[in-house]
Amino acid sequence: MRNLMKLVASAVACLGFTTLFAATALAQSPATEQASPTNKAPIVLTGGDERPAMSLNGDWHSIPDPYFGGLYDFHKHESKRGWFMNAKAKPGDPFPLDYDFAQSPTLHVPGDWNTQIAELFFYEGPMWYQKDFDYNLKPGTKVFLRVGAANYKSIFWVNGKRICDHTGGFTAFACEVTPALVPGHNFIVAVVDDTRHEDGVPTTKTDWFNYGGLTREVGLIEVPDAFIDQFDLHLNRADRSEVDGWVHVANAKPGEAVEVSIAELNAKTSATLGADGRAAIAFHPAGLKLWSPESPKLYRVRLTAGADSLQDEIGFRTIEVRGTEILLNGSPVFLRGISIHAEAPYRTGRAYSYKDAETLLGWAKELGCNYVRLAHYPHDETMLHTADRLGLMVWSENPVYWAVQFDNPAVYANAQNQLDEEINTSRNHPSIILWSMANETPINDDRTKFITALADHARSIDPTRLITAALLVHGTDDTKIVDDPLGAALDVIGTNEYIGWYERHPEDIDKFTWKIAYDKPVIMSEFGAGAKAGLHGGPDDRWTEEYQANVYQHQMVMLNKIPQLRGMSPWVLMDFRSPVRVLPGIQDGFNRKGLISDQGQKKEAFYVLQKAYVDKTVGKAQ
Ligand code: GCU
Questions:
Q1: What pTM, to 2 d.p., does this model score?
Q2: By residue range, what is the domain housing residue 269?
Q3: Is residue 621 part of a domain?
Q4: DSSP characters for 404-457?
């Protein structure tokens, strides 16, 4: 039983009074104590959300810790163990304790803390989480904790053993917990710190709310000793009857077999692992139907390697550029889109559920979209699976947003790690056609080198998709110029503009012409205007629905004059929370450029854009 654990809290005298800093040293049985440290770097499990898991969703006890006393002592030295006072202090223990998870309030996981407890709305800092769970480890298996996302820095312990640290608020990761588990009752403790950092990715200033916490699903995944950790299956661009790819098996021996099968097509293939643990896949499933917005065909694909097997829902399509055209399955396509933040409709807060995804992407379909820009960070797997099923192509974005520290190698490493986690988690979603490296970054040599390196890296690990970024444009009078040097590193040029909102009047928009320095496809990745749902007035009265609709009307005229425009994702589908939008009675803490309010009220501009998309009066390629 748990009496193996004995709490030893060290008390320290400080400034004439005793401040109890519980540097809890859990006295474990010697065998467990000698267990190899489990604090390893997290790994990425491709399609990890599709593996059967023991869910750890639900209520976790929680303790806000603004002074980080749970990890740092009074001289700011880090305790190697942190707080795990789930095992109640026994009567007569020498020292009182300053906290007790069991008596502390609970937070629901998944979910940000800001919208769960009113006093935590503006809380930014470390939050402790604790949950008890029972587990019985099967011989020959390993157990991984899979975290859908923890914003922003996080540390996890199981039964007092630190199992992993992670940085990045929007990507999934997994940490092995096997050596830390004991038969029967276990407990997990996490600290999630959403403090913004100058050297963070993103950095301290964003135009969205910094929702903190275990914001996506958490669970335990059981795998055999040798297991499939990453894989990629895609259609061959040169031969659309061929499915290519690879399967990587961790802890396997070269020469072992891997099998990929698609039961619906009675198709299967096998391959053997090389010294790098990877097996190359290439086979021709007869009767394969391609994935497209018009026909979002998905197949249940099973992968097997030794004692491990997993399934994933995969669609097969190609995406490429030819000159200024974007080709889906070899045919030109125009991306009729909308930008979307991961803001939960109605309840607000960080979106995480299929219900959230189906509402948001259902509105996009209603708008007549075949494409969505999931801004400004990787969204949850529920959004990607829903986009796969609804037939919506996706721009997925790494949160290199505005002015991160482009001259800091540690910041680059963080940005590249988040990009790796994004790509390696979600690389088999047919909906994702674009990996966006950044949004509206300032033009300078360090930044262009930084993001070009990210683009080259993304291409090296996933050559099957297109690389883009949302660029700022400049110009004088009625001309917009796109000549950002970063454009040279991109397959598709994204550009943001707010003519008629941040500059000039709606009626001026038509006068603008565009000079684009690249012979590449262009996506107008942002434009729009703010409106408070239900506020009405004339077409030149700011913040009214009529003004926003007027901007959209005039934007359509201008956009149709850009010959190499191949898509658009106006800003933004739904109003979203942002601390920099505080105009009383109008914004009240929300960015109001949504075509729909956070309470689901469609504004007039929604119908202007819907008509343009449904009648296909915007965009060259149909
Ligand atoms: C910028 C930025 C968005 C922001 C928008 C706005 O272009 O990319 O994140 O919300 O403009 O000003 O509303």
A1: 0.93
A2: 227-317
A3: no
A4: --TT-HHHHHHHHHHHHHHHHHHTT-TTEEEEEEEES---SHHHHHHHHHHHHH
